[in-house]
Amino acid sequence: TETIKAVVIDGYPARALWVQEFTNFFIPEVDKRLAETGNYQMDWQESYGGTIVKPKGVLEGIKLGLGDIGIVTTIFHNSKLPSQAIAAATPFVAADARAVARAVDEIAKEFPAMQTEFDAQNQVYLATGVVLDTYQIFSREPVESLADIEGDKVAGAGMNLRYLEGIQGAAGVRGGLTDFYNMVQTGLVDHAMLWPEAAATFKISEVAPYMLRADLGAVNSKTITVNKDYWEGLPAEVQEALQEVAVLYRDHVAGIAMDRAEESRNAYVAAGGTITELGEDQRAAWADAMPNIAAEWAKGLDDSGQPGTEMLQAYMAKLKDAGFTPVRDWAADAATN
Amino acid sequence: MTPVEIGLFSIVAIIVLIYLGVYIPIALGMVSFLAIWIMRDNIDLSFALLKIAIGDSAMEYTFATIPLFTFMGLIVSKAGLGADIYAVMNQGFRRITGGIGMATVGANAVFAAVTGSSIASASVFSKMSVPEMLNFDYNPRFAVGVVAGSSVLGMIIPPSAMLIIYSFVAEQSVGEMFLAGVVPGLMLAAAYVAAIWLMARLTPGFVGGREVEAATLMPWSEIAVKLGPIAGLILVVLGGIYTGWTTPVEAGAAGSALGIVIAALRRRITWRSFWETVIETGHITAAILFLITAASMYARMLGLAGLPNELQTILAANEFSFFWIMVLLVVLMLFLGTILDTASIILIVVPLFLPLIEALGLSLVWFGIVAVVAAEIGLLTPPLGLSCFVIKATLDDARISLKDVFLGALPFAFVMLVVLVLLIRFPALSLAILN
Amino acid sequence: MRSAVKRLADGIAMAANAAGTLVVVLLVAVVNYDIIARGLFNRPFLGAVEVVQFSMVLIVFLQLPDVIRVGRLTRSDGFLGLLAVRAPRKGRLLSRAIDLISAIFMALVVYAMWPEFLEMWASQDYFGVPGVFTAPWWPVKLVILLSAGLCVVHFLLHVARPLIDDQPELESGS
Ligand code: NA
Ligand code: NA
C-alpha cells in the first residue's frame, strides 16, 4: 500500500458547514473507496481557519502549492473566475441548493470556461458546492410589498447589491455577515439580505423579526479544486476516487443546506419572527425592473472568447427541465439584447 | 523533522536572531523562508509563502484601525487633552497620600480610551506627571514607575493596537475584543490605585511626597471645559462601536476627524505639526504592519509544517489540563517579554496556543485579553521594556537612570501579574460585558 | 559614490513617505465621507472597503523605506548596544551583517513580487464586484515591488556606512 500525503486547505474554520462535511463526508468516502483495492492510502493534513491561508487566499494557495486540495470560495474572485458568477447573476430562478449545484456543476463539465479559468490558476476543477439556499429580506418593520423597501437602506454583500437596482430608491450598504445584526439593530439599515441559515446563526430574528420571502435563489459559492502539479502526480485510481466523491459531496452539502434552511425558517418563526410571502406579481415586478445582470455577465464572457450566452441558455434550460419556472427568463433577454 | 521539532527549532532560531539584534520582521521572515525550504526541499514553496504573506497581510480592512487610532491619539495629545484630564484628576486625589500617583493612573485610564498605544501615554504623562511629583518630593523611582505602570492601560482599555492585532491573528471581531477590554482595563487601573494606597502606608520611603496644599480649586465649569472634548471623543469612538453605528475603522476615522477639529479650535496645531503627526502615524503603521506581515508568514509556515494539527493530537493524547497550559503560556510570555515588544510576542505566541485553546472549548475573546495583558507586562521588564525606554528618553533627566525606571516599574509589573491571574481564573471579568 | 546614491535614495524614500502621508489623510477623509453620505444622504460609498484596503497597502509600503532609512524598524538592540561599548569592531561587523541579511530578505521579496506584478499587468485582474466597485490589482503589486527594491538599497546603504555614526536605534510602534 502506497501512502499519499494530501494537504487540504480552507481559510474558513473547521466548524463551517462545508468544511465540517469535508472532514466528515469527503475524506471518509475517499478513504473507503481506496480501501476497497488497498493499493493506496491517503495521509490527510487538514489545515483550516487561516493556519495556512485566509478565506480569500485559498485560490492562490492551491495555485502556488501551499495546499494540495482546497475549497475555493469563488465569489471573492470575480476577476479570475468570472464564469462562477452564473447563479449570482440569475436571481429569481431556483431557490433550491441541490438543483443549482447540479446545474452549475454540469455547466462546468459541458463547457470549457470554468475549467479553463481554474486551469489558468494552476488547478483542476472537481465540483461545485452550494451552501446558500436563497437570499431573503429581513426587516425591522413589517414588510408586505416592494413599496415598503423603496427608498430604504438594505445591507448586502457582493453581487446581491445589484439586485437592489430593481427597487426604486433602495440603497445597498455593504457589510460582512457578522456586521448585519448591529447594522439592523441601530437602524443604520432598514433591511438585510441574507439566507435563513445565516440569519439563524447570527440571531437576526432579535432585531429583524419580519422576513420577506422573496426567494431570490440559490447561489454557488464553493468549488473543490486540486493543485494541477499534484493532480498530475496522482495515480489514476486516486484521481477517480476524488472526482467521484467530489460529486457526492456536492449533492451531500446541498442537501444539508436545504435541511438547515428549513430548520432555520422554523426556528425563526419559533423565535417570534413573521414570514410574509412576496407575491408572484411583486417578484416579477422586481425581476423586470433589474438591469439584465445575466446578460451583462454573458456578454463579458463572450467578449473574452468564452461561450457566455450559450452557458446562460444551457443553465436556464437545465433548471427549467428540473421543474423550475424562472420569474424572468434572463437568457431570452440576453439573446435579444 | 517532525512538525514539533520544526516549531521548536524555528522558535529558538528566531529568539537567537532577535537577541543578536536582527530586525524582528526580518528574523521572522527569514527563518520561515528557510524552514519551508528545508522542510519541503522546495524553494518555490518558500517564495509562494512569501508572496501570499506579503500580498495579503496588509490588505486587511480592520488594519485601517491602526493608523486611525494612532493618529487620533497623537493629535489629541497635541491638543493638550492629556494635560487637561491630569489637572482634573489631580484635584480629585489631592487630599490622599500618593494622590498625584493615583491621579496619574486615573488620567491614564481616561486618556487610554482615546489612544491605542502605550507609547503615546508614556510620553505624554512622563512630561506632565513626573515633574509634578518631583516638585512634591515624591521618590523619583516611584514617580517614573507610576507613569510606566499606568501607560500600559493605553493598550488594554480600548481602542488598542494590540487587541486589533490579536483579533487579526485569532479571527475575532475587533468590536468584541474592544468591549472585552473595558472591564480588565478598569480593573487594572483600580488595582494600581489600591497598590499605591498600600505602598504609601507600608513603604512610605519608596513613595515619598507630601500633601498638596489646597491651592485655588478649579470651579466645576472649568472642569467641564477640560473634560468636555475627551468625553465627546469617547462618546463618538466607543459609543459608535458599542451601538454598532460605526465599525471600529469608521470610529477611528470619525475620532481622528474630531481630534483635528478639537486641536484646530484650541489653536494647538499648525500645518507643520499636523504634517509631523501624520508622518509619525505612517511610520508607526508601516513598522507594525511589516511586523504583522512577517509574523503571518511565520504562522503560516507553522501551519504548513502541520504544527497546529500535531499540537491537537498531543493535547488529545495527554489531556494537558487548563492549569498547565496557562502556566506554560504565562511563563513563555514573561520570558519573551524580557526581549520582545508586545506586538511581536502576540504574533509569535498566539498562533502556537490557538489550537490548544480552541480544542479546550475556551473563549477566544477571553484568551485575547489574557494574551494581551500577559504580553504587556513585558513593557515594564528589562532589558527591553518599551514604556520604560520611552519614559527615559522623554524625560531626558540625568538624575533618573534607566535602572531607576525599571526598578520603579517593578511593583506595577507585579500588580499586572496579579490581575492577569484573576483574569485567567475568572473569564467573566472579560466576557460579562459581551452578554 | 555612496553619498550620491544615498542622496538619491534618501530623496526617493522621503518623497514616497510624503505620498504615504497623504494617503493617511485620504483614508481619514474617505471613511468620514462614507459615514456622512450614508447616514445623512442615503448614499453610501460602495467602494469604501476597497479604498481602505488599497490605502493600507499604500501606507505600509510607501512608508517602509523611510522607516528603514531613519532606523525605526522594530529590533531588540540590547546585545548590539553592549557590543558597541565592549567590542566596537565586532559590534560594527555584526550590525553590517544584519543589514546585509535584511537586504537579502527584501531582495527575495522583489524576486517573489516581480512575476506577480507582470501577471497582474497582463491580465488586468481586479478586486471588488463588477457593477458595484472594482479596482485593478497591478498598482498594489507595483507599489510593493518598488518599495521592496528601495528597502534593499537602504539596507545596503546601512551596510556601506563608513562608521557607526550613531547607535542602532530602538523603536517599535507599540
Ligand atoms: Na486605548
Ligand atoms: Na520587557
Automatic annotation (TrEMBL), chain B:
InterPro entries: DctM, TRAP_DctM. Its main location: membrane. Keywords: Cell inner membrane, Cell membrane, Membrane, Transmembrane, Transmembrane helix, Transport. It is a multi-pass membrane protein. The keyword Cell membrane applies. Pfam families: DctM. It comes from the Bacteria. It is found in: Cell inner membrane. The keyword Transmembrane helix applies. GO terms for cellular component: plasma membrane. Residues 11-429 form the TRAP C4-dicarboxylate transport system permease DctM subunit domain. The chain crosses the membrane at residues 6-37, 58-76, 96-121, 142-166, 178-202, 251-269, 281-301, 321-354, 361-385, 405-424. GO terms for molecular function: transmembrane transporter activity. The complex comprises the extracytoplasmic solute receptor protein and the two transmembrane proteins. Belongs to the TRAP transporter large permease family. Part of the tripartite ATP-independent periplasmic (TRAP) transport system. PANTHER family: C4-DICARBOXYLATE TRAP TRANSPORTER LARGE PERMEASE PROTEIN DCTM, SIALIC ACID TRAP TRANSPORTER PERMEASE PROTEIN SIAT-RELATED. This is TRAP transporter large permease protein. It comes from Marinovum algicola. The lineage of its organism: Bacteria, Pseudomonadati, Pseudomonadota, Alphaproteobacteria, Rhodobacterales.
Automatic annotation (TrEMBL), chain C:
It is found in: Cell inner membrane; Cell membrane. GO terms for cellular component: plasma membrane. InterPro entries: DctQ (IPR055348). It is a multi-pass membrane protein. Residues 27-162 form the Tripartite ATP-independent periplasmic transporters DctQ component domain. Pfam families: DctQ. Its main location: membrane. Part of the tripartite ATP-independent periplasmic (TRAP) transport system. The complex comprises the extracytoplasmic solute receptor protein and the two transmembrane proteins. This is TRAP transporter small permease protein. It comes from Marinovum algicola. The lineage of its organism: Bacteria, Pseudomonadati, Pseudomonadota, Alphaproteobacteria, Rhodobacterales.
